[in-house]
Amino acid sequence: MNRLNTRKGWTPEALAALEKARVSRRDFIKGSGALLVGFSMAGLAGQWLGSPRSAAAQSLAGAGSNQLDSWIAIAADGNVTAYAGKCELGQGIFTAQTQLIAEELTVPFDRVKLFVCDTALTPDQGTTSGAQSHPTNFNQGNLALACATARETLLERASARLGVPGDQLVVSDGVISAKADPSKKVSYGELVGGKPFAIRVNPGAKRKPASEWTVLGKPARRVELPALATASFEHVQNVRVPGMLHGQVVRPPAVGATVVSVDENSVHGLPGVVKVVVKKNFVGVVAEKPWQALQAANKLKVTWTPGVGLPSHGTFYEHLRNQKPTRDTLVVDSKDVEEKLGSSAKVVKATYHYPYQMHGSVGSSCAVADVQAGKATVWSPTQAVYPLKSTLAMVLGMPPENVRVIFRMGSGCYGINGADTVSYDAALLSQAVGKPVRVQLTRKDEMAWENYGFPFVFDQRAGVDADGNIVAWSHESWFASLGSRPGTTTPGNVVTGLLVGFEPAEFKARTPAPDPTEFDNRLSAAPPYVTGCVNGKCEGLGTVASQRVLTHEVRSLFWTGPLRAPSRLQNTFANESFMDEVAAAAQQDPVAFRLRHLRDPRLMEVVKSAAKAANWAARPSPRPGIRRTGVAAGRGVSCVLYGGDNGYVAMIAEVEVNQATGGVAVKRLVLASDCGPISNPDGLRNQMEGAALQGVSRTLLEEVTWDNQKVTSIDWKTYPPLFLGPDVPKIETVLINQPNEQAMGAGETAISVVAAAIANAIFDATGARVRQVPFTPERVKAALSARA
Amino acid sequence: MARTIEREGSVMSVLNLKVNGRSHSVDVDPATPLLYVLSDDLGLHGPKFGCGLGQCGACTVIVGGQAIRSCSTPVSTVAGAEITTLEGLGTIEKPHPLQKAFIEEQAIQCGFCANGVILTAKAFLDRNPKATEEQIRQAMSGVLCRCYTNTRMMAAIQRYAKEVRA
């Protein structure tokens, strides 16, 4: 086997970085060429690392973000090397960032070399999450600003060198020339090649206007895609380090169970077993080969205390609603909601339920750690290399400066899957044996212990006047949380951290909720239809002035954390389903009813655009002339401004409901999006299509289950999602480009609106309202039976 | 042709595997699932551990023209057989037409499932070149993509199927 001959083209700097990772060049060459460490990507490494100015200077410059050299380097040949802290997770941000750099610096796309997410190389940009990569790196800040500063600086230096005023210069393919005399020219390489800029990023540097874009804003093919399609890409699951061993963990058999004793003799003499590792309640096995590690982990006899016991899954929502203590938050409260409801011509009430759901990455999480001589290098699929560096240091008991975290893409994560916890697992096992250790979790260990999406209960009430206007809206919710991303200080927010003795973030009870000081709708809890008036400032998107949005957080049974569109998806399900119920009660068309209660032009525009593309026929729901048997077809609408300020989206769903079986077939999804200036239209479409379909799976199928001791959703049979094959709806996307607005996120917007759009379409088709996710055939049949 | 050696209580065998047209001798416990041998002993990136239960398809390889789940296939049962992994189809420079269709349609997000998707489609269309769209959908129904790139993946497979039929 010699399929990856990637060492060709490695520069001295690259090899020095390999040394820094304490993998010698000799080991690397011995490693049959399949080894990729440091900062390579298979298939790209050769060409990428060919640049004379590479990573080493970057690591000297440190992780500051106000130094231009932390972001951009220009080689003697004029090639551009850039460093960013937003990682590629499959969402296409690597390609979009490359477009941005090429655009701002006016060099061809293929002359840009980008490194992301390595604590020895790239600036600290926190976590790649929350649809924040575009807001962070594509507006007047961070990567975009660094690129603009670099171009400005290069133009200034060219102006001085050529004796031509800056406004008389043009840039093309990394060469600056005088407009009047093209023979007067100088290349980027000649200006700064191989040397640092040694200046600060200029907060006032001028971005290139979108009207001049030729690379950004155009469809670009994903850089990694050819390697992914041909198996020459290196996922973290493919990282192999010389001398590497394999570990498996042994998780508790029940929630809250702790170790009584571990019988190491039970695996004594098993082939390949190197060590049994026990640290408080963390138990693992290291072996020479992965299959041996798995066999040993299965055979290891561990005596555990009984679990803490779990409330019944069947009555969980009652438990959630009544659990004490709570942490209460008021997003908005006009203090007159009860009075206005009392005087309304009509009051509409409904209760909604949303279950625990999981990220359920198709590949279980994996990391490789090399912890020796008081230093650690960890190859991790984490979304947060710098925070992980900090918490790994806590878990390993060493200074953070001795820890290097190198991002490698894992299986798509959609939030905090097992990526961080498995990084701790690998590091702890490596520390125990003093050799590099790779851990890939079993399917069960991934699913039973990951940080699930939050479960919710909602009570909604609205008052409608005699003219069909909403005059009051009360939104009250209960949701459960435990742990989250570990951040920089809380390894106990994921399972391994707890097992080795760290506590999850403290639960801080608070009742009653204090009055809000500003309208903070980052979780999209307030529906778009309220005015959002707090202390005289009205930052909501709608017209309803009498409003209260009150949430109660309680301690969760299981780990929770961000799962694609965290809380926004659940809140939008409840708000947009309820908006439809109110429209039906007022006997009005759901699209017109929404527009009537909105005053934000951009949200109104996406609603209108989606409706137009879907050929929406204006009429109230449910549709007239419903027959109560057979297959019924209907359509529903839903919309949101994601997180209060981070992407507008509207969806029209068309469904068919089999009224005999309760089966729901989603036939067509039409999405309209406005996320500001579009970087890569094809990449945006890909994100919207995937999010829409992932939303269908979560809406119709997905729910975590448990018995009185443990989670019982442990594989794809016990947590069945939507597979490839039949029943894929037609997905159409309408992109509204806003080149002069701020860049917003798009990774999580589309999924937020799916559940409500489908619920509303089921109602339109049948007159039956489904208020609990997932919409299983049983629940749909129950709703059909409950029809008036 | 397996040579068996008793060693510290474990049975190791030297097995001959034919992978992507090349022969390899591996010294392993014959009960080891094929996946581990391909990804760890041979260092291949195509077959992936997804569930270890044969449920998701990430570990798919083609053996004797059939797409099989290498995570739940003991290596000893495929000794001597022709095994094809995703690496065996084409390269970045010269992708197989099916891989090319995935690139053309930009039908991948994280790419972890791509191995199983592409090989399952390849094995099915090799045996059923005149398959209808519906039959192809049925054939793909045991493969999981959690990024839900389904629409583009099916478009890529249909694009290739059209080429095969033509």
Descriptive account of the structure:
The complex is a heterodimer of chains A (788) and B (166). Helices cover 28% and strands 21% of the residues of chain A. Chain A has 788 residues and is of the alpha+beta class. In chain A, helix 13 packs parallel to helix 14 (419-433) and helix 17 runs parallel beside helix 22 (754-766). The longest helix of chain A is centred in the N-terminal third of the chain and has 21 residues, at 142-162. Chain B is of the alpha+beta class and 166 residues long. Chain B folds into two domains: 3-88, Ubiquitin-like (UB roll) (Roll), CATH 3.10.20; 97-165, Orthogonal Bundle (DNA polymerase, domain 1), CATH 1.10.150.120. Chain B is 32% helix and 20% strand. Chain B has helices at 34-41, 97-104, 114-127, 133-139, 150-165; strands spanning 3-7, 10-19, 22-28, 60-63, 66-69, 82-84. In chain B, strands 1, 2, 3, 4, 5 and 6 form a six-stranded mixed β-sheet that branches. In chain B, a hairpin with a 2-residue loop joins strand 2 and strand 3. The N and C termini of chain B lie far apart (42 Å). The mean pLDDT of chain B is 94. Classes of the chains: A alpha+beta (788), B alpha+beta (166). At the A-B interface, helix 9, helix 10 and helix 20 of A face strand 3, helix 1, helix 2, helix 3 and helix 4 of B.
Count the beta strands of chain A. 26
| Count of DSSP H/I helices of chain B | 5
Q: Supply Rg of chain B.
A: 17 Å
Number of structural domains of chain A: 3
Number of helical regions of chain A: 23
What average pLDDT do the residues of chain A reach?
91
* CATH architecture classification of the largest domain in chain A: 2-Layer Sandwich
Q: What portion of residues of chain A is helical?
A: 25-40%
Distance between the termini of chain B: 42 Å
Q: In terms of per-residue confidence, which ranges of chain A show pLDDT below 50 for 5 or more consecutive residues? A: 1-64
Structural class of chain B: alpha+beta
